[in-house]
Amino acid sequence: MKKKKIALIPGDGIGPEVISEGVKVLKAIEQVDANLSFEFTEYPWGCEYYLEHGKMMDENGLDQLKDTDAIYLGAVGYPGVPDHISLWDLLLKIRKGFDQYVNLRPVTLLNPSLTPLKNKTEKEIDFLVIRENSEGEYAGAGDWLFKGKPEEVVLQTGVFSRKGTERIIRYAFEEARKQKKTLTSISKANALNYSMVFWDEVFDEVGKEYPDVVTYSYLVDAASMFFVQQPERFEIVVTSNLFGDILTDIGAAITGGMGLATGANINPEREFPSMFEPVHGSAPDISGKGLANPIAAIWSVAQMMEFFGEEKWSELIVTTIKELLEENEHLTPDLGGNATTEELGNQFIKLLTGQDAITY
């Protein structure tokens, strides 16, 4: 039996609600698959923890997490706690501390009714964005000079190292080769004359080692347009931290909204645990009302299963999400339905396993 230790960080707002449904999926898998077992440890970290303790997580939080097989994160953010604190002191602290330098965001249309784009089908909106997840514009480097004075200057420095840039581009080439798909690099070398020129040069250098991979390169403004007008151009995409953050929200918009947006933060060498999360945010305005859509959280379980080498379960989870959307009877209000978060989750379990859900 494969025993997996999973750290749960439900977080803030709707985070605990959607993570609860994802845990039910894992428990359902455990019930029907004699080869898998999951051990859960929950951590109360987040903005409420910050308001009580003055910190987003324990000082030795990374030490507590390091021996787990995966981290399952709900959402972080709440009124009264500045966004830069909630982001840097928990989410980015984990990403950087565990060198989760690969961010995987699928842009996949699960049902044709979900896209606002006319005449676009599931076949035309189906690609993977591989985002650099450790440096770039989110390196935290810079300075704030002459604060409060007329000559005030703020410097935000993007950091692009040879190691960081080459490893994410090489990862993308390997993925494109494995899937036998095209690879598109997205940058902005015409305006960012150091960082993005370097990015493009590294992309070209690494590409020489992969003559079997067909490549394209777009400026980020043109790519944004193509995401909306011609998403069929893309199969595998690789881009920087900031551009990936923005472009994948466009990807969410064309596939049904943030309630369907999932992301994986991967340490490919498996020296540290990887982290899986819905990326829709904490949505405090609907917290506790049973309105949250748990599909993104469930989809992130599929990403976790793929990372564990359980491709069968990963594919079955995604197929079941499609079945749930096609059934169209147990959807949350953001998808035009009347179901609660829990009702959608329970119906998903029935479709996945034929059994009732185990309450978490």
UniProtKB/TrEMBL annotation:
Cofactor(s) in the UniProt record: Mg(2+); Mn(2+)
Enzyme Commission code(s) on record: 1.1.1.83
Sequence ranges assigned to domain Isopropylmalate dehydrogenase-like in this UniProt record: 5-348
GO-annotated molecular function: tartrate dehydrogenase activity
Catalytic activity: (R)-malate + NAD(+) = pyruvate + CO2 + NADH
InterPro entries linked to this entry: ICDH/IPMDH, IsoCit/isopropylmalate_DH_CS, IsoPropMal-DH-like_dom, TTC_DH
Keyword NAD: yes
Pfam families linked to this entry: Iso_dh
SMART domains cross-referenced by the UniProt entry: Iso_dh (SM01329)
Keyword tags: Manganese, Metal-binding, NAD, Oxidoreductase
Family to which the UniProt record says this protein belongs: Belongs to the isocitrate and isopropylmalate dehydrogenases family.
Protein name, as recorded: D-malate dehydrogenase (decarboxylating)
Organism of origin: Virgibacillus tibetensis
